[in-house]
Design brief:
Elements: E1 2-7, E2 16-22, E3 29-38, H1 41-48, E4 63-70, E5 82-85, H2 95-98, H3 108-113, E6 124-126, E7 129-131, E8 143-147, E9 151-153, H4 160-166, H5 169-180, E10 189-192, H6 196-207, E11 213-217, H7 220-228, E12 233-236, H8 241-251, E13 256-261, H9 266-274, E14 276-284, H10 300-304, E15 307-310, H11 318-330, E16 340-345, H12 349-358, E17 363-367
Parallel strand pairs: 10-11, 10-13, 11-12, 13-14, 14-15, 16-17
Antiparallel strand pairs: 1-2, 2-6, 3-4, 3-8, 3-17, 4-5, 5-9, 6-7
Helix pairs in contact: 5-6, 5-11, 8-9
The structure holds zinc ion (2 copies).
Amino acid sequence: MKIRAAVLPEVGGRLEIAELELDAPHAGEALVRLYASGVCHSDLNAIDGTATTPCPAVLGHEGAGIVESVGPGVTRVRPGQHVALSWAPSCGACEECLRDLTHLCSEAWPAMGTGGLMDSTTRLSRDGEPVYHYSFLSTFADHAVVPERSLIPIPDDVPFDVAGLVGCAVTTGVGAVWFSAKVRPGERVAVIGCGGVGLSAIMGAVAVGAAPIVAVDVSQDKLEAALSFGATDAVLADRDPEVTAARVRGVTGGGVDYAIEATGRPDAMRAAFLSTRIRGTAVLIGIPRADAVLELPALSIPRMERRVLGSLYGSSRPERDFAVILDQYRRGRLPLDRLISHRLPLEEIEQAFELLTSGSSLRTVLDLS
Ligand SMILES: [Zn+2]
Ligand SMILES: [Zn+2]
């Protein structure tokens, strides 16, 4: 079938809206009519080459829609079902999956790097030439063929734009607090970097009764937003991580139990680590460049029992945790819709990235209807 999509022709290139050919779903895959896609910093990393992805490619990994048809053997979804998309499908059989670490599936990760689906082949093409998928999803399009294990059924009354955000930013941020760090009521939390992921972490911390919750960012606007989401204190980040950390320790009486880092910058990771108190944990969720190195004062690790905790996709199990997060949204305890600051049609995707680069949006959602 023909679809409309935003194509990245090469790393560093400009996105172009094009008509592509999309093959029918193979075994274990489904065709989804997409209605919304968030625009995430990881997409920007793919465009500017911070992270490499095979090109030409259709980016986008934060979407929701309705299942239109399914390939042979599909049992998890049926046509007509509303779904949020997860970029962490899993084989269900590898050692990590058996350890309940499905988001770290050792079958899915190598396949993702090929730009194909789980069998490393692509369903997308243009004039007979292959076009690659991104994170198994490619949601900057009106339709996508994806692995059935990427499809998480959602209630029909959840808006697609909210469900889409649960597919990446929200689960990454909320999950870091709930599932990676397992923050408890009264524990002190700092969140460094208050974009869509960081604000989600703040919402997650508010929902579990953490206090204080310190928002840290270089942007006064982002700090204002963080306070409106329930952060109790705002700290302007300095260029010097030592200064930033001293400010966080100052407003928390000596440091936080959990410092959640959502930018992927080594200097911000260092600020997070230095913001922790005795037995405090730096929770690293931002994705750095592949060659980035983090330097930490080693003595304080045994001496203060400081910890560093990595968190990917909020250490979540999408099949279980999307439902938990969306239920808290429907009960009004996670105001996820407030993350959406801009809505644009697919044709204006370049503007969405300008908003992201300039830091003037919380989250932009593409309306694909
Ligand atoms: Zn993302
Ligand atoms: Zn697996």
